[in-house]
Amino acid sequence: MTTLSTIASQIDGQPMFKILDEALRLEREGKEILHFELGEPDFDTPRNIVDSAIKSLRDGETHYTSSMGLYDFRLAAQQATSFSRHFTPDIEQILVTPGANSIIYLAIKCLVNPEEEVIIPNPGFPTYYTAIKACGAVAVPVELKEENGFRLQPKDLQKCITPKTKLIILNTPSNPTGSVMFPHEIEEVAHIAKKHNIFLLSDEIYSRLIFDENKPFFSPSFLDHCKDRTIILNGFSKGFAMTGWRLGVAIGPAQVIEKMGLLLSTIISCVPPFIQRAGIDAIKGDQQEIQSMKNEYAMRKKVLVDGLNSLPGVSCIEPDGAIYAFPNITKTGMSSDEFANFALHKAGVALLAGTSFGSAGEGFVRMCYVNNTHNINKAIANIKQALGEYYEKRS
């Protein structure tokens, strides 16, 4: 039998889906499982967005369109950027993609040569690691520390830069920690990137989900308007409850966006036009339901964090944004993997080991507050009971 390529043998996918598969197996065996492993909003897509897609389908918008995206969609993204980020990108700076994840791969493939380096947060979104491997590049993790609220520290970033560094990936609000960097920290990161002539991919998928009023949204694009080295990664999955629609937007230097668009046309062709019509309505339509979802997330966050801090051996700092809590479980005496396995099999709670997001995640687990408060309270009660039995056996 012929062998797979070296790169294919290194690709290991996203760990959350492996946990989901195990949780589903247990459910098939009759065990009740409470799900906190996937960053999947439990809200349905707002009706006005769905109706726009249906109308587009009925109007016959089922054909190929530009690989760069519908002009109308890019115009809506341009206007939204002007409102939210206080600059107006050129249409040529905007690319529509099938979900935000694809932007990670497209950007790395177009900017980074094999063996060159990409600096990523540790803990960080697992797709960063996999996309870097798939491009034959080298991931250089910069540790995020609980003592700093899991905010990337510019001085730590500076230490990771070498002559081979080609790209920095910034993610704020953060997956998996929920941390939000201060504006001055992001400015320092942008200045470091400029000083060393490094591209900066700013993952802003959670930019609509910031709960701390003392940490207003800030983007490195505020400084260079995506004309020099900043590329914005954004999408509709989290803020608009559109995970299954697969719709993302990249904004960056025109020459970079052009090449990303050519690569997209080669492997994907284009984003379906009816999906893009739904995206236009998400951007320009009624935002009341979107705000209601955010308010609900804020309430769930408090219930989950308070509950986690009530567990013996567990502590959790307050996340500032996104949809994740990242509790410290070191005092339980279990590793991250052990605790995740314990929670699933002993408490019926599916969550993720912190090490799923990098080595600096050891001692932590991730829980998504995309489940209702009843189930959050039930999950906390289940874990508390299981921990009580665990400690009793150890004593």
UniProtKB/TrEMBL annotation:
SUPFAM superfamilies, alphabetized: PLP-dependent transferases (SSF53383)
An example Gene Ontology biological process: amino acid metabolic process
Keyword Transferase: yes
Pfam families: Aminotran_1_2
PANTHER family associated with the record: ASPARTATE AMINOTRANSFERASE
Cofactor(s) this protein requires: pyridoxal 5'-phosphate
EC number: 2.6.1.-
Aminotransferase class I/classII large domain location: 32-381
Name assigned to this protein: Aminotransferase
Keyword entries, A-Z: Aminotransferase, Pyridoxal phosphate, Transferase
Cited CDD domains: AAT_like (cd00609)
Stated family: Belongs to the class-I pyridoxal-phosphate-dependent aminotransferase family.
GO molecular function, one term: transaminase activity
InterPro entries in alphabetical order: Aminotransferase_I/II_large, AspAT/PAT-like, NHTrfase_class1_PyrdxlP-BS, PyrdxlP-dep_Trfase, PyrdxlP-dep_Trfase_major, PyrdxlP-dep_Trfase_small
EC class of the enzyme, as a word: transferase
Organism domain of life: Bacteria
